[in-house]
Amino acid sequence: MATELRDSIDQLGTELVICTDGCTGIRQDQSAGVLPRCLILERSESAGRGCLAVGLNPGRSPESERAHYVKLGGTYDSVKAYWHSAAPAIQYYVKARRLIEQLNLDGPILWSDLAKCENAEGSDGPPLQTLRHCTRRFLLRELNVTPSDWPIVALGWEAYRALAYLVPMRAVIGIPHPTGAFAAFANMFENGGLRNDLRARSADALRETDPKAVWLGRIKRGA
């Protein structure tokens, strides 16, 4: 199963980085090292229950990342190589992984986003149609190749609301954005671990035969 899943994600990733669909509201220029990205399978050999960790779309790429792709070529292998070298220092992944482990999801993590391209200059987020297009083009296919009992950890309110509607067949655990929500993310923890009330709510959602969507941040309308 591990090899089959890894091969499936590699195939999707190879297709992703050369995507030229030209969606609105995003920045993409393979020649300048601005690639569709953020599809990474981590801990693929782990035996525990895995999950998909899904955000809205990638943040703006740093110059070092763009230079890496220009030098080595904008291939999926170069994307994975950069991620594995940089991820240990990127707080988005460090904090999200800490939360995922607190949920006792100790298997593989498929890091993904609803839209796979960073925002265009001056844009504060991908347009709805871009999110719809990219979700259909890639995320739904990612769901098809991952085990059906893997829940989704939605990173941020917008991602949570979208995924709660989009994926009713899986548990969806929504958390405040690991680096954009600041205090809201930190408030989920006490004494070094996930708060007991949040641990209980997420555990209920993860074991239900009728999968639930649960928001672990400050209660919002419609949560």
Descriptive notes:
With 223 residues, the chain is α/β, with parallel strands linked by helices. It has one domain: 3-Layer(aba) Sandwich (Uracil-DNA Glycosylase, subunit E). It contains 8 helices and 10 strands. The mean pLDDT is 94. Helix content is 42%, strand content 14%. Strands 2-4-3-6-7-10 form a 6-stranded mixed beta sheet, sandwiched between helices. A two-stranded antiparallel ribbon has the order 1-5. Strand 8 and strand 9 form a beta hairpin.
CATH top level class name: Alpha Beta
First and last CA, distance = 35 Å
Q: Which value, in Å, is the CA radius of gyration?
A: 17 Å
Strand content: 5-15%
Descriptors for this entry?
223 residues; two-stranded antiparallel sheet; Uracil-DNA Glycosylase, subunit E; 42% helix; alpha/beta; globular; six-stranded mixed beta sheet; 8 helices
Indicate the topology:
Blueprint: H1 2-17, E1 26-27, E2 40-42, E3 51-55, H2 63-72, H3 76-86, H4 91-102, E4 109-113, E5 118-119, H5 128-145, E6 152-155, H6 157-166, E7 172-175, H7 183-186, E8 189-190, E9 193-194, H8 196-207, E10 213-215
Parallel strand pairs: 3-4, 3-6, 6-7, 7-10
Antiparallel strand pairs: 1-5, 2-4, 8-9
Helix pairs in contact: 1-5
